[in-house]
Amino acid sequence: MIADDANVSHVASAGTRRAEWFIAVAWVVAVVAATLQQSVVRQNNNFLIFRAASIHLLHGQDLYAAYPALHFDFYKYSPTFALLFLPLAVLPIVLSMLLWNAINAGSLYFALGTVLPRRAAAIARAVAFLDMLGSLQNVQSNALVAGLIILTFAAYERRHTVMGSLAADVGTAIKLFPVAAVSFAIFHPRKLRVALAVVFGMSLLVVLPLLVTPPATLLSQYASWRAIEAKDAMERGFTVMQMVQLLLHRNLPNWPQQFMGTLLLVAPVLVRRSRWSEWMFRLTYLCSVLVFCVIFNHQSESPTFVIAMTGAAIWFASLSRPSRAEWGVFVFIVVCTMLASSEAMPPAIQRAVFDRYHAKTIPCIVLWLVLQVQLWKPRNDWHWRPQPLPAPIRCGN
C-alpha cells in the first residue's frame, strides 16, 4: 500500500512537471509572438508613446502634450515611469519590446509561484494565460502591475518590509491604482515600519526624475500629469460605475462609487481581525484587491483585465473541491470575460453585447461579490486548500 501511494505521488509529480514545462513554453512563445506581431508586422502605438516619453523627459519637453508626428493619443503615466523606461527607449525597438514583454510576463509568472504551491500555480498560470497574452499584444504594463501587487502581498507575508513596500511603490509609479496593495500591510505586525518604508520609497520615486531634469521642469511635468488625469476623471471604462450608469441612466460622479467600493473592500478585513492569522482569509483578500483594481478603476480597458483575471486564477486554483456554484462562476468568467474580446466570441455578439454594454465587467463584479461574501463567512465554510506559502523569496528585508 505504501509503495502504491508512492507510485501515485510520483506519477502526479511527473504530471505536474510536464504541465509546468508546457505552460512555461507557452508563456515564452506568447512573449516572442506578441513582440513580432507588434514590432515587425505593425508599430504598436502604446510602445511608441512609452519610448517617446522617455526621450521627452530627457529633453525637458512636456510629457503630456500631443505629439501627432510620433504617435496618437497621450502619455498618461508618471514622470518616474518615463525615467524607468529610459533604458528600453534607447534600444532597437524589437529588442526593447521583447525585453518589455518578457518583464511583464516574467513578473506575473514568477509572482504566481510566490503565493501558490506548484500544482495550483500551474493552474493559475494556465487560467491567466489568455489575458496575459492580450496585455502583451497591446504592449501595456498590466501584467507587470498584477505581478507587483502579488509580490507586495508575498513580501509582506514573509516580513520583507522593504521589498514589499518597493513593489507597491513601483506599481503606484506606473499606474496609480496599485496603491491598493499597501492595504496588505494590515496583516503586517509592524505597520508603522511599513508605512515609513512606503512613504520613503514613494518620495524617492517621485523625485527620481531629478537625475535627468531640473526641479522646475519636473514640477511642471507633475502639473501636466494632474491636469490630464483630472480630464479623464469622468471616464468609466469597464467598471462598476459604467454598469451603474447603464442601469440608472444617470451620469453620476465616479469618486463616491469608488469610495464606497473601497469601504466594502476593507470592511471585512477591519471588522474580522480575529481572522488575520488565517492564510486562506488573507489570500482571499489578495484576490479581492486584484479584482477591485479593475472594476473600480475608471480607466479600465480590455487589456487591464489581466489583473482581475489573475485574481480569478488564484481563487480558482486554490479551491480544493469547487462546488457547482463555484464552477458556474468560473465558467461564467471564462466565457463572458476571458473569451469576450477574443476571436472565439462571434463578432456580432461582441459588438451587440460586450462592446455596447461592457458586459465583460459583469462576471468580475460577480466574482468580487463572491470573494467579499467569502471574507465574511465563518471558517468552516471555506473550500480552500489549507496550504502554506511556497518557498520564501530569497531577497529583501
Which key features would you list for this structure?
single chain, 397 residues, mainly alpha, disordered N terminus
Give an overview in words.
- It is built from 17 helices and no strands.
- With 397 residues, it is mostly helical.
- It has one domain (2-381).
- Helix 13 (279-295) runs antiparallel to helix 17.
- The longest helix is centred in the first third of the chain and has 40 residues, at 2-41.
- It starts with a helix and ends in a 21-residue tail after the last helix.
Structural class: mainly alpha
Please identify the oligomeric state: single chain
Instruction: Give the termini distance in whole angstroms.
Output: 45 Å
Q: List the total number of helices.
A: 17
Order of helices and strands: HHHHHHHHHHHHHHHHH
**Tally of domains:** 1
Largest sheet: none
**What is the tally of beta strands?**
0
Task: Assign a percent range to the helix content.
Answer: 55-70%
Q: What share of the residues does DSSP label as strand, in percent? A: under 5%
Shape: globular
Low-confidence segments, ≥5 residues, pLDDT <50? 1-11
Averaging pLDDT over every residue, what do you get?
89
Radius of gyration: 21 Å
